[in-house]
Amino acid sequence: MLGITTLFPPVGKMAAPQSLVQYLVLRGDLARAPFSWPLGALVAQGCHAAIAALHAHRDHPNTEAYLQDLGNMRKVVLEAPDEAALMALAETLKQNNIDYMLWLEQPENIATCIALRPYSKGEVNPHLRKFKLLK
After folding, report:
1. If DSSP codes are grouped into helix, strand and coil, which group holds residue 101?
2. Which keywords describe this protein according to UniProt (predicted)?
3. Which residue among 2, 15, 22, 72 has the highest number of C-beta atoms inside a 10 angstrom radius?
């Protein structure tokens, strides 16, 4: 069986100087009534947001370093209890100059997920501390 490092060898010789993580914060209420979105739909929202954040910040040195070693990409998926909490997080990130992407599901224009560009844990933990891992 091929390992992930065999399938995705480092693209270049540049190694990330620190452990970089891409954080996603997904609305947990979308999985419960009255929304009751299926798991696949929620996963898709996180995927859309993650890719959009990487693309939007593709020229940032952290994003470049993160993408140099595809076999070691780390993501942490957190849960916002509802849309109000997600939007409050977006405002906090904006005020603190944290790069992120707010994903809006179309055509309904529903805010579903925030994905940050890759950061070291210490840079963003103070802003994400109140969110628990998505269950």
Report:
1. strand
2. Hydrolase
3. 22
